[in-house]
From TrEMBL:
CDD domains: CYP107-like. Keywords: Heme, Iron, Metal-binding, Monooxygenase, Oxidoreductase. This is Cytochrome P450. Signal peptide: none annotated. It comes from the Bacteria. Belongs to the cytochrome P450 family. Gene3D superfamilies: Cytochrome P450. Pfam families: p450 (PF00067).
Length: 414
């Protein structure tokens, strides 16, 4: 078996796609170094990702299968500690995963998602009205004022998060996806979101509401083995984070691509391509998540000429997987809505497939055409090369997306 020299991941995420190409030089799985020198593997090949995402020899439970976490070698001050600290479906294995996932999946049935369309349309219309209120000629950060606010409002409404607590609660998710935070910030973030969600759970127990948080609390009473408080906290944390951060990046990337590919934007406008084409190609070429921590080898696994040893951490490199030339050929790095095969794994695969995928697609399918219909002269307010990355290797996004909403404003900038 060959050895592979670890690539030290750039915690600031300056160019996740370039880094993905470097990792792919090692094969379908690359040796990497995480913050504080933690050694791990990143899967960058589509076929191997499909295999390992359904392999029972791969676990997501650090409390069972990560010796360095179990023995305290890695603690709450590790910059990525929020991920193994959570007790929920994303850090569970086998039957435990099924138990924790069941009450959440019941809340996101296809029928319920379809019934949400009018509500999503109303939320989009309200946010577009807010955008229209900006002074003409003023650059607007579309990410903060639209791409972020839409999924944040929807997921917080669903779970009954009070308006006055939303910013702080969502901030915990933002910090968790920042791979460049300090040990002190990591430890403080775990303490903060644990207390915030405990306060929320206590409030809902005292005053139940018609929301999904209350449903989860009741589910622990209805089932034979219910959710503990720590499991409720972890579940709320991952659902609120995944329901806002990923959709935000999907919408932001789709808008950016359409603004920088006018010929493909024209194809959507005249019906030669669909908004579904835009959404799926964006998910493929610009996966909202770059690398998702963490999985662990339950036993030694021999793949792609190397041995992933028992207990080794594994990350899924979704951004690189979506651009695998073995699947998408020499044009894998190009965003092309006419591409016949838009296959991607950006919502995962197997038992951990994202239950919120239908809602994410619904939000994007409503938001994107409504935005371009309301502001048909939408343009970037900066040169494309001036855009800054989000600043993490976990997510794949832009820090901001400055735009002019009208043609008059765009002309004014020149």
């Amino acid at each position: 078996m060959e050895s592979r020299c670890p690539v030290v991941l750039d915690t600031t995420g300056r160019d996740v796609h370039a880094e993905g190409r470097v990792l792919r030089e090692q094969g379908q799985v690359a040796r990497v170094e995480l913050p504080q020198g933690v050694q791990a593997w990143t899967v960058v090949g589509h076929d191997l990702a499909m295999q390992l995402l359904t392999d029972p020899r791969v676990s997501k439970n650090p409390r069972q299968h990560w010796p360095a976490w179990i023995n305290g070698e890695i603690g709450q001050d590790w910059p990525l500690s929020s991920w193994p600290s959570m007790e929920n479906m994303t850090t569970a294995y086998g039957a435990e995963h099924a138990r924790l996932r069941k009450p959440v999946v019941k809340a996101f049935t296809p029928r319920r998602i379809r019934s949400m369309q009018p509500y999503v349309e109303q939320t989009v219309a309200r946010l577009l009205d807010d955008l229209a209120a900006f002074p003409p000629g003023e650059p607007v950060d579309l990410k903060r004022n639209f791409s972020y606010r839409l999924p944040a409002a929807i997921i917080c409404d669903l779970f009954g998060i009070p308006e006055e607590h939303r910013a702080d609660i969502l901030r915990g998710g933002e910090v968790t996806t920042d791979s460049s935070i300090t040990p002190e910030e990591a430890e403080a973030n775990v303490r903060m979101w644990t207390q915030q969600f405990q306060n929320l759970i206590d409030a809902k127990r005292k005053s139940p509401q018609d929301d999904l948080t209350t449903d989860l609390i009741h589910a622990e009473k209805e089932d034979g083995v219910g959710l503990s408080d720590s499991e409720l906290i972890g579940t709320l944390f991952v659902v609120l984070g995944a329901g806002s951060e990923t959709v935000m990046n999907l919408i932001t990337h789709a808008v950016h691509k359409l603004l920088t590919h006018p010929e493909q934007r024209a194809m959507v406008e005249d019906g030669r391509a669909t908004w579904e084409d835009v959404i799926e190609e964006t998910l493929r070429a610009e996966s909202p998540i770059n690398m998702l921590p963490l999985r662990f080898a339950v036993e030694d696994i021999e793949v792609d000429g190397v041995t992933i040893k028992k207990g080794d951490p594994i990350l899924m490199g979704y951004a690189a997987v979506g651009r695998d030339p073995a699947v998408h050929g020499d044009t894998a790095d190009k965003w092309d809505i006419t591409r016949a095969d838009k296959e991607h794994l950006s919502f995962g695969h197997g038992t951990h497939y994202c239950f919120g995928a239908p809602l994410a697609r619904l939000e994007a399918r409503i938001a994107l055409p409504a935005l371009f219909e309301r502001f048909p002269d939408l343009t970037l307010a900066v040169e494309d090369h001036e855009l800054e990355p989000q600043g993490t290797f976990i997510m794949n996004g832009w820090k901001t997306l400055p735009v002019y909403l009208t043609a008059k404003a765009a002309a004014h900038s020149r």
